[in-house]
Amino acid sequence: MKFTHLPLVALLLTLLSSSLSAEKLALYTEEFPPFNYSEKGKIVGVSTEIVEAVMKRAGLEHSIKSLPWARTYKMSQAKTNSFIYSISRRAKRENLFQWVGIITPATQSIFALSNRADVRINALEDLNKYKVGTTVEDSREAYLASKGFDVEKFQRVAGDSAYVLNYKKLKKKRIDVMPMPDAVMSHISKQQGDNPSTVLKKVFPLKEISQGGYYLAASLSTPKDTVEKVKVALESFKKTNEYKMILKKWGL
Predict the structure, then answer these.
(1) How do residues 142-190 score in pLDDT, each as one tens digit?
(2) CA-CA 20 to 30 A from 43: which of 123, 130, 187, 233?
(3) Contact 217/84 with Cβ under 8 angstroms?
(4) CATH superfamily name and code, 24-105+212-249
(5) Cβ(196)–Cβ(33) under 8 Å?
């Protein structure tokens, strides 16, 4: 007798799983131009364009929220049917998400002002000689922490305008160097009315974290069939001319 309700239980579990899969997805990101940023009340950028095209291809309703990185990172892990994009894939993060795939390439470097002849970095350890500006808990800070640096000694900032604040501190020589994605640093410099090719110089390439690119990932509690649907849509979209044109449009 105790087994008579098993088919009903199985049906209810299936319906519950389908209901979860059908829920509107929550996509989390940060202010990280030109990959994702707010403009005239909308979240735009190269990664945003790609992710929205992928969701459309997968036939999934979604909303996008841009929050400071630390909140985006936590919220996207805590909720079911949530995704995060423009995230670097690191060993420390490997088991925290379901990794969908790379959405954009990423090249990262350590930058200084071009007129700072005194700033020379031949090895990562040379950073100890300088005032380093970082964003709290972003991938570059996490990478430096993994290499043994005490991030509490860095000039750390947080919030939606963290990258711009650090750029302004660099210009005022309140910090000596800042690790950043090349495309983001160029975009911020132009936004501030500068010519990045004359104002900035790369003093050290961050080759280890430039491999691969920026990812789209899902929370561990997001149904696997939803993640698989998005993964298939992403892989097929990356084979299209539309994907290539989006990258070209944004200079990637």
Answers:
(1) 999 999 999 999 999 998 889 999 999 999 999 999 999 999 999 999 9
(2) 233
(3) yes
(4) Periplasmic binding protein-like II (3.40.190.10)
(5) no
